[in-house]
Amino acid sequence: MLLSGGLDSYTAGAMARAGGYALYALTVRYGQVHSQELAASRAVATALGVARHIELAVNLAAFGGSALVGDGAIPKDREIEGTEIPSTYVPARNTVFLSLGLAWAEVVGAEAIVLGVNALDYSGYPDCRPDYLEAFERLASLATRAGVEGRPLRVLAPLLRLTKADIIRRGLALGLDYGLTHSCYDPAPSGAPCGHCDSCRLRARGFSEAGAVDPALGGLRR
C-alpha cells in the first residue's frame, strides 16, 4: 500500500486489511515542505499492523514544479470544484509512487497495490482518475516478471468513487482513529492545520457531511 499519513490512504489500507490482505506500507519522502505527514504515516502504519513499513527518499523537489515541494505558495480558499489543475499537483507523482510500489510488490510477491486516490474529491489531479489507474494496471501486467508469468498485480483504489464523507463513514465503521492522520498542505510550525488549503477544506466538508467530529482538531466540529 502507498501510505501518505492522510485519512484516505489510512482508510484504503484498513479496507484492504479487512478484506484479508497482509499490508506492506510504502511512504515516499519526495521533498514535501513539511514532515507532519511522515510522522502521521508512522502512526498509521503502527495502527494498521503492517508487516513492514519502508520510508523511501526520492527528492522530487529537485525538479520543482509544485507548491508541495516549495515551488510557489500553497493556494488557499480557492474554488475546488473547478477543472483547473492546481499548483499543488506534483508532476507524475502517482506514477513515480506506483512504480516504486510495483517494484516492492514484485519482491514480496504481492497480489495488489493499494492506494487511496479518489475521483470525486480529487482537487483536479489528473493521476487520480479511473482511466489512469486502468492504464497503470495494464502497464504493470506488461512490465513485470509477475505479469509475464501470468500473475499480474492489481491496482486497488477502493475509495475511487466515494465522497469524502463516505470515506470517513467507512473508516469510522472500521474503528479508525483519524486523529492519527494529517491532511494539511501548509500546517503551522506546531503541526496545526491551516484550515484553508484544498485538503483541509475537503476534509472539513467530509466530516461535516458525515455528521462526525474530526479528532485532529481537538474535538471541534468543522
Overview of this protein structure:
With 222 residues, this protein is mostly helical. It has one domain: 3-Layer(aba) Sandwich (Rossmann fold), CATH 3.40.50.620. The chain contains 7 helices and 4 strands. α1 packs parallel to α2. It is globular. The chain starts with 6 loop residues before the first helix and ends in a 12-residue tail after the last helix.
Question: What is the averaged pLDDT score?
Answer: 93
Helix content: 25-40%
Report the β-strand fraction as a percent range: 5-15%
Shape: globular
Largest sheet: 2 strands, parallel
Structural domain tally: 1
Name the CATH homologous superfamily: HUPs
Counting DSSP H or I runs of 4 or more residues, the number of helices is 7
Structural class: mainly alpha
Low-pLDDT residue spans = none
Listing every helix as H and every strand as E from the N terminus to the C terminus, the arrangement reads HEHEHEHHEHH
**Would you state the CATH class?**
Alpha Beta
**How are the strands ordered across the major sheet?**
1-2
Show the helix and strand layout:
Layout lengths: L6 H12 L5 E6 L6 H13 L3 E6 L35 H16 L3 E3 L15 H14 L1 H4 L5 E3 L7 H10 L24 H13 L12
Parallel strand pairs: 1-2, 3-4
Helix pairs in contact: 1-2, 1-6, 6-7
Give a quick set of tags describing it.
single chain; 222 residues; mainly alpha; Rossmann fold; two-stranded parallel ribbon; two-stranded parallel sheet; 7 helices; globular
